[in-house]
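thread: overnight batch results

M.L. [08:02]
morning all. the overnight job finished for the chain we discussed friday. pasting input first so we're all looking at the same thing
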Amino acid sequence: MPAETLVYTDGSCKMGGGARGPGGWGFVIKPPKGAAIEGYGSALETLAKVMEFHAVAEALERLPAGSKSTVFSDNQSLVANLDKQLANWQRSDFANVDASIVESARRIATLIDEKHLVIQWKWIRAHNGNLGNERADALAAQGAREAKASVGASK
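M.L. [08:03]
and the structure it wrote out:
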């Protein structure tokens, strides 16, 4: 099996309390050899949890087939659900999955299956000095800032 790739993901939203607003997602992929791969993006009317799941899907999209990876997230709910519920969600055709994350959850499951990815899910404490997590957070925040700026520019 190939050497392990480390993946850090994060999501951000400029609204609080479950309100929809401009958001961003980011990831950092640290392959066993070579330079890190980074990505980020934004959405206008979204939730932080949507951006968290979207970040994972975007990162998995960029992994080579057959990769063995540990995916780190500072979102405990995301880690618990992907670690313990993803197979159940697939069996039920995602029937009881939060509608706001079902598209990303389906995409995550499909990518794992089609690319034969071996994934271990790990929670990591936020803002605790882990460089991969800090960078993913900064990328997600950048996406959210860009989304927020585009809302302001269109007014």
